[in-house]
Design brief:
The chain is an alpha+beta fold and about 290 residues long. It is about 45% helix and about 25% strand. The protein folds into 3 domains: about 35 residues; about 90 residues, Helix Hairpins; about 150 residues, Heat Shock Protein 90, CATH 3.30.565.10. Helix 2 packs across helix 5, helix 4 crosses helix 6 and helix 6 runs antiparallel to helix 7. The structure holds adenosine-5'-diphosphate and magnesium ion. Magnesium ion binds next to helix 6.
């Protein structure tokens, strides 16, 4: 028999407390074991506090990123709204005609419905991202998640004159993780790439997102841009909190991405491309539970 250790919570007279119990069997013919209980409440509290502040911070930066994107979101919403108005006005005109052309009206109404659904989807995607939620682990397809985030950014990319090209592994990229957090990783990397390309201002550039399975039971995501690249010697520094080279930067994007990726058992790193720009990579374990 080997020993074991576990943390458990109990209720003290005034507050909940956490204890660590470890059991070490004695290697004697008559048996026996050393059992120890330690009060680890302070350590547990500090851990929970750290986790909570990381969540708060992640939520805060998510909200502020969305604030930056609000111009393009307004644009994305105003398209279906304009479509609905135009169609409703056309329907009004058709109703003035006797007898009204019912076939035409039917088409108009179904256009209104699909525009309305489109606007609803935009709002739903936003809501998902802005939700303040405790993280929960799901088996999910990283490719689908990347497609969602890229769609969310599509009109922003259009406005900035950059294209986002997806070169995704044809198989679903199955991982276990928190959807909103992983969306945030992809969002932060794409926003950085778009900002870098705007700085470069060298015509229209392309951001490429690649995904693939690696041969070590992991999935690999790479976000490549054609901006100015990282300043020399800053490959690790850029992942530090508050490191920023942007006048209005917060310097939190990559450090949050790093803490999320690491909390998912993964690694994140950045390297300048042989030509222009930088590629930020992350890899995380494949989920064993099979596809979504
Ligand atoms: N794609 C990129 N190209 C060039 N530099 C980058 C890129 N991504 C990140 N960086 C550098 O890393 C810094 C930190 O990025 P980040 O943590 O997202 O904070 P912020 O975007 O607020 O500056 C940036 O200010 C920039 O100097
Ligand atoms: Mg950033």
């Amino acid at each position: 028999m080997t020993g074991f250790a576990l943390d458990y919570s109990g209720s003290g007279p005034t507050t909940d407390r956490w204890f660590a119990m470890s059991v070490v069997p004695l290697n004697r013919p008559e048996g026996g074991a050393v059992i120890s209980h330690t009060d680890v409440t302070e350590r547990k509290r500090a851990e929970l506090e750290l986790q909570r502040s990381r969540q708060e911070l992640a939520h805060f930066t998510r909200v502020s990123t969305m604030g930056e994107l609000s111009a393009s979101l307004a644009h994305e919403l105003s398209q279906p709204l304009t479509g609905i108005l135009t169609n409703a006005q056309a329907a009004q005109r058709f109703l003035d005609v006797t007898p009204p052309d019912l076939g035409e009206l039917r088409t108009i109404v179904s256009d209104i419905i699909s525009d309305d659904k489109r606007a609803g989807e935009v709002i739903q995607r936003l809501r998902d991202l802005l939700r303040k939620d405790v993280p929960h682990q799901l088996v999910l397809d990283l490719n689908a998640l990347i497609r969602d985030v890229a769609r969310l950014l599509s009109s922003d990319a259009l406005i900035r004159n950059v294209t986002i090209t997806l070169d995704l592994d044809p198989r679903p990229l199955t991982v276990t993780g928190d959807r909103v957090q992983l969306q945030q990783v992809v969002l932060n990397l794409l926003v950085n790439a778009m900002e870098a390309m705007a700085d470069g201002a060298e015509g229209d550039g392309s951001i490429v997102v690649r995904t693939q399975y690696t041969d070590v039971e992991a999935v690999h995501v790479a976000v490549q841009d054609a901006g100015p690249g990282l300043r020399e010697g800053t490959h690790d520094l850029v992942f530090e909190p508050f490191y920023t080279t942007k006048p209005a930067g917060m310097g939190m994007g990559l450090s949050i991405a790093k803490s999320i990726v690491e909390a998912h058992g993964g690694v994140i790193w950045a390297a300048n491309n042989p030509g222009r720009g930088v590629t930020v990579h992350f890899a995380m374990p494949v989920s064993i539970k099979g596809s979504e």
